[in-house]
């Protein structure tokens, strides 16, 4: 049984893949201090709770936070008796090598999204991932990652307003009733919501124009459906895209080793 781990700057997601389907998905906050023992107590409790009596034999990790990888490796060694594949490391091959400036450290989540989206949809894609940052990953015709865009995340933008301006409260994102807000919260939500709709539309249009071709836009991340409510920004929403990409990269390494 394969354990896939996607560690973002805010949350870390664990899924169990039986070769055809995900049996379970659990989420915890990302904290580099969390030890292997803590991960295991948490994981085994949830597995027991869901009556999942499975043996984990393989692990693949994508982490945008380099520091957490150490304890995840200890988890694999101590409790699952295996050596994990870590996306971005030399011993973890990618189905299609990225084409970017030499020396660039591409976020592993973006490489994983690329592999997952190409596997499901073929080439010429834009993957929009609403995480701590909002990333746009450009997938070429042959499935290679060829660059993209990094924008401040939705919650990060709201938090930035709150932390920099004394009179601006903490606000959760939601679709505002109108563009013109008649109170502080509505004004902030409008700025971020409609600003984001514009940002996504403009960036996708410019990517397509720059590459002189039509491209399918695939979104992932919990906030994507919120932005799809008003207009069709994305051709498809795939909540499990990153996890799917991890299974694709894992299979590729197993088959080519
Ligand atoms: N369905 C959702 N509704 C509201 N906020 C969400 C939802 N899903 C994720 N978020 C928020 O979006 C931000 C990014 O979360 P996440 O996608 O887990 O980021 P990362 O992958 O960078 O760790 C966080 O602030 C998280 O709380
Ligand atoms: C852009 C990111 C911070 C997004 O991370 P996330 O929001 O998923 O936590 C991450 O992909 C990253 O650290 N990238 C490194 C730089 C790059 O991808 O070019
Ligand atoms: K992410």
CATH architecture of the largest domain: 2-Layer Sandwich
Lateral arrangement of strands in the main beta sheet: 3-2-1-4-5
Q: What is the element string, with H for helices and E for strands?
A: EEEHEHEHEEEHHEHEH
Measure the end-to-end span. 18 Å
Uncertain spans, ≥5 residues at pLDDT below 50?
A: none
The oligomeric state of the chains shown is: single chain
CATH class of the largest domain: Alpha Beta
| Total separate domains | 2
SSE class: alpha/beta
Pathway: Cofactor biosynthesis; coenzyme A biosynthesis; CoA from (R)-pantothenate: step 1/5
EC number: 2.7.1.33
Pfam family, one: Pan_kinase
Organism: Tateyamaria omphalii
What does this structure look like?
The chain is of the alpha/beta class. The chain has two domains: 2-112 and 244-255, Nucleotidyltransferase, domain 5; 123-239, Nucleotidyltransferase, domain 5. It has seven helices and ten strands. The protein has helices at residues 36-49, 69-79, 108-121, 154-164, 184-211, 224-228, 241-255; strands at residues 2-7, 11-17, 22-29, 58-63, 85-86, 125-130, 133-139, 145-152, 216-220, 236-237. The chain has a five-stranded mixed beta sheet with strand order 3-2-1-4-5, sandwiched between helices. Strands 8-7-6-9-10 form a five-stranded mixed beta sheet, with helices on both faces. The longest helix has 28 residues, at 184-211. The radius of gyration is 19 Å and the shape is globular. The two termini are 18 Å apart. Ligand PAZ binds next to α3 and β7.
